[in-house]
Amino acid sequence: MEKIIIEGGIPLRGEVSISGSKNAALPIIASSIMFDDSNNELYNVPNLQDIVTIKKLLISLNAEVKDSDDGKLFINTSTINNFDAPYDLVKTMRASVLVLGPLLAKYKRARVSLPGGCAIGARPIDFHLQALRALGASITMEHGYVEATAGKLKGAEIIFPIPSVTGTENIIMAATLAEGTTIIKNAAREPEIDDLILALCNGGANIKRVMPSVIVIKGVKKLNKLSHYIVSDRIEAGTYMVASAITQGDIIVKNVDLNHISSITDKLTEAGVKINVISPSSIRVKGPKIIKSVDISTAPFPYFPTDMQAQMMALMSIANGLCVITENIFENRFMHVAELRRLGADIKVCGNFAIVKGTGALLGTDVMATDLRASASLVLAGLASSKDYTSISRIYHLDRGYEAMEKKLSGLGAIISRVDDSNKTDYNDNEDYLTSQSMQSIASGIK
Ligand code: EPU
C-alpha cells in the first residue's frame, strides 16, 4: 500500500502548470463512441487513474485506444461491437455511466451497471434515466444493470429537477444524434460541459447554450472526427492556489482559465490571499502570514464548487477565527473532517454544516484518505503542519484526479515523497479482509 509522506512547514515557491481537466476529459472520451472517424484525437489528456478506467471501458467495448506520454490520445470506436459497461469498471468510477448516452445515440442499445453508493453520497442516476426515457429510450433494470434500447431517439424538452453535471452531459450526447430538437432546461453550467459541447460541435454537432441554464441540441445524422484540446482543470488550479495560501507561499499557477476559477479566487482573496493576474492564463498566488476565516457554501457553477470544499476546510483549519462551511451538493462530503481533526483541526459537524475554529497551526501525524478531494485536503494540511511529518495512506484516491501531485509539489519546494510499505500487513488498509470478517460475523449470527 502506497503512502505519501510530507514534511510540512515549507513555504512553496516557483511555478506549477495545471493539467487537462479530469471532468472534461471523461465525457469527451466517452463521446468518441459517437464519431465515425477511425482516428479521433485528443490533446492535453491528464495522466490519471480515472482516465485509465475510461480507456479500459472503451477497450472492453472493443474500441481501439492508443496514447502517448505527452497527453495525446487516439481513439477508434468504429470497431465497437459490445455494449456492456461492466460492474467492475463502473464501481471503480461512477463516471463510467457517461457511456450510456453515446452508446444509445450511436448503437441504440447499452447495458450499463448501476453505480452503487459512493463515499460522498448516494449519487443516484434517476435524472439521466428519466431524461433518456423522454428522448424515447426504453429502460429497464435487470440484475443491477441499466438495460437501455431505443428504436429511434427523438428530441424532447428536458427539465432537470436540479442541475446535474454528468446528467446534462449524458443527455447532450444522446440528443446529438437524435431526430429533431432537444431543449435542456436547468442544465448544469460547469465549464466542463461547455468543453464537451465545443468538442462535439467541432465534429459536426449543433449544440448551443442559449441561456446560462438552457442548452438547445438540434440532432444531426452523424459526427465526423473528434479532435480536441482538453480545457485546464479548475479544481487542480484551485488546489495549488490553496497550497500556496496554506504555506505562506508565493507561486505562479500556469495554464489556468481565469473565468473558471473566479469563485475560488474571490474566496481566497476574502481570506487575505494576494492573487495577481500576470498573463491571460497565469496567476501569482501569495499566502499571507495570517489567513482570515471566511464562510463557504458550495453550489453549482458559477458558485463555489463542492470539489474545493475539503481543500478550503484544510485552509480554514489554520485560519484566524471561526467559520461555517456548508456542503449543499453531496450529503456525505465531510469524511475528511475526522482526519483533519487528527492533525489538530477544531471542526464540529452539524448536518451539512461544519463549524471550523482556526487553530493557527496543525501537527503532522498518520491519516487516511477517504475520497479524491479529501486526499487533496490532507496533502494541503500536511504541507501546513509545521516541521512535522504527515503520512497519508490510501492515496490511490489522489491518483484518480491529480496528475503527478508529488512531482508538482516537489517542484515548488515541498518535501514530499511516496513510499510503498506493502510488505507491512495493515488490516485497516485491507477492505477485503474487513468485508470477509463482517461476512463471517453475519453468517455466524454474531451481528
Ligand atoms: N443527482 C440526483 N440524481 C441524478 C443526478 C444527480 O439526485 O440523477 C444529485 C446528486 O446526488 C447531487 C446533485 O444531484 O446531490 C448534483 O450531482 P451531479 O449529478 O451534478 O454530480 P455528478 O455529475 O455525479 C460531477 C463531477 C463531480 C462533482 C459534481 C458536482 C464528474 C465526472 N464528476 O458529478 O466530481 O463533484 O459533478 O459538481 O464530472 C470530483 O471530481 O471529485 C467529483 C466528485
Q: What does this 3D model show about the protein?
A:
The protein has 447 residues and is of the alpha/beta class. It has helices spanning 22-31, 49-60, 87-92, 100-107, 126-134, 165-176, 191-202, 234-246, 262-270, 309-317, 336-342, 372-384, 396-399, 405-411, 431-443; strands at 2-7, 13-17, 40-43, 64-67, 73-76, 84-85, 109-113, 138-142, 145-149, 157-159, 181-185, 206-211, 214-218, 227-229, 250-254, 274-279, 282-286, 296-297, 322-326, 346-350, 353-357, 366-368, 389-393, 415-420. It has a four-stranded mixed sheet with strand order 22-23-1-24, covered by helices on one side. The longest helix is centred in the middle third of the chain and has 13 residues, at 234-246. The two termini are 30 Å apart. The structure holds uridine-diphosphate-2(N-acetylglucosaminyl) butyric acid.
First and last CA, distance: 30 Å
The neighbouring-strand order within the major sheet is 22-23-1-24
Ligands in the structure?
Answer: uridine-diphosphate-2(N-acetylglucosaminyl) butyric acid
Categorize the overall geometry: globular
Largest sheet: 4 strands, mixed
Residue share in helix: 25-40%
- State the oligomer: single chain
Low-pLDDT residue spans: 425-447
- The gyration radius over C-alpha positions equals 22 Å
Number of strands: 24
Structural class by SSE content: alpha/beta
Beta-strand proportion:
15-25%
Mean pLDDT: 93
Distinct helical segment count: 15
List the helices and strands and how they pair.
Elements: E1 2-7, E2 13-17, H1 22-31, E3 40-43, H2 49-60, E4 64-67, E5 73-76, E6 84-85, H3 87-92, H4 100-107, E7 109-113, H5 126-134, E8 138-142, E9 145-149, E10 157-159, H6 165-176, E11 181-185, H7 191-202, E12 206-211, E13 214-218, E14 227-229, H8 234-246, E15 250-254, H9 262-270, E16 274-279, E17 282-286, E18 296-297, H10 309-317, E19 322-326, H11 336-342, E20 346-350, E21 353-357, E22 366-368, H12 372-384, E23 389-393, H13 396-399, H14 405-411, E24 415-420, H15 431-443
Helix pairs in contact: 1-2, 1-7, 4-6, 5-6, 6-7, 8-10, 8-12, 10-12
The structure holds uridine-diphosphate-2(N-acetylglucosaminyl) butyric acid.
